Amino acid sequence: MNLLMVATPLAMEVCRHPYSAAALVIEWHVIGMFAPGFFTGSLIGRFGVLPVIVAGCLLMLGCVAIALSGVELMHFVSALILLGIGWNFMYTGASTLLTSTYRPSERNKVQGFMDLCVFTVMITSSASSGALLFVNGWSILNLMSLPFLLAVLGAVAWLARQGCPPGFAATAAPPPTVPSPPRARSRRPPVRPARTARRRA
User: Which of 90, 29, 27, 83 is nearest to 59 (CA)?
Assistant: First the structure.
């Protein structure tokens, strides 16, 4: 997502669009990124985390298709809106999956490592987006995102075959236990106390 977002203003400048048009595209992209956050959690609770991630991948594929179909202003606006919504679905869904893969004592380490990976990818894609755009062009740059989307779809398909996302079974409520029937008490004859020996006269 960051690769295409950072390269969009540069691509619009190459296509002779004014600065105000690039600002408009980024504004709608930011709205697409964060506005769905009001209901993404409800969608995950209703349909599940994996369908929401798949929906995000499909939206990003639609972004690539629109970006490849033309370079007019509406192409950029529509593509970046779909890119933002798709990122929201995928990022929120992936964060939900992450919370189910560690124990409470490992939370800080796992989330810190995940943030490190996310920001490393963001820095790398931001630094390389301009060079990739001017070397390969806008169309090739969009096509370069397809292997990552296909990898995510493959990972989702693998998780779906497992029956449930990893960790979700551990957090599910345990099955109710059926109380065992009471055991019949055996009636034993009362034990008579032993007679003490008579004292000698």
Answer: 83
